[in-house]
């Protein structure tokens, strides 16, 4: 196929497409909307798969991070929590763990004393981590070189 023939056929096809769109604009609009929705849905699914499955976690050695729950012997489907003593003793008693830490959810009202009258208290939720949790995640405590995230 010669380049000149290819370009002339492409131009002819474009003119034909323009005539069809001019005759049936509703159909063309439906086609464009369907393509836009399909491309958008495909992009969204890929973004989720990329973020969840393909990209590794932003921690050193993410394949070694484990979340554990103790389970009562008579209820294997139920999760409970470690108490602080067990959590802090895990790395000392078992050489399997390089570091083991605990976290607990906390929430409360926080207010700036200088601005308490104008803005009032604000409800904040967060997590309290043990020092070993911070080490395992690759974060240093505030007194270290890096600030906590």
Oligomer: single chain
- The proportion of residues forming helix, as a percent range, comes to 40-55%
Global morphology: elongated
Instruction: Tell me the Rg in angstroms.
Output: 29 Å
Task: Summarize the structure in words.
This protein is mainly α. The chain has helices spanning 3-23, 25-54, 84-93, 116-119, 131-136; strands spanning 103-110, 122-129. Strands 1-2 form a two-stranded antiparallel ribbon. The longest helix is centred in the N-terminal third of the chain and has 30 residues, at 25-54. 2% of the residues are buried.
Please describe the topology of this protein:
Blueprint: H1 3-23, H2 25-54, H3 84-93, E1 103-110, H4 116-119, E2 122-129, H5 131-136
Antiparallel strand pairs: 1-2
Helix pairs in contact: 1-2
What is the gist of this entry?
Helix content is 48%, strand content 11%. By secondary structure, it is mainly α. It is elongated.
Give descriptors for this structure.
elongated; mainly alpha; 149 residues; single chain
């Amino acid at each position: 196929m010669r380049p000149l023939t290819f370009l002339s056929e492409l131009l002819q096809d474009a003119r034909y497409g323009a005539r069809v769109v001019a005759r049936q604009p509703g159909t063309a609009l439906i086609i464009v909307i369907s393509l836009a929705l399909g491309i958008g849905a495909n992009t969204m699914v890929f973004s989720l798969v990329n973020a969840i499955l393909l990209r590794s976690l932003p921690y050193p050695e993410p394949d070694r991070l484990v979340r554990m729950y103790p389970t009562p012997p008579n209820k294997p489907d139920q999760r409970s929590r470690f108490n602080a003593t067990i959590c802090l003793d895990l790395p000392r008693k078992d050489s399997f763990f390089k570091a083991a830490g605990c976290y607990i959810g906390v929430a409360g009202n926080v207010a700036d004393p200088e601005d308490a009258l104008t803005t009032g208290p604000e409800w904040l939720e967060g997590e309290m981590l043990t020092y070993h949790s911070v080490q395992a995640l690759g974060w240093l405590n505030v007194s270290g070189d890096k600030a906590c995230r």
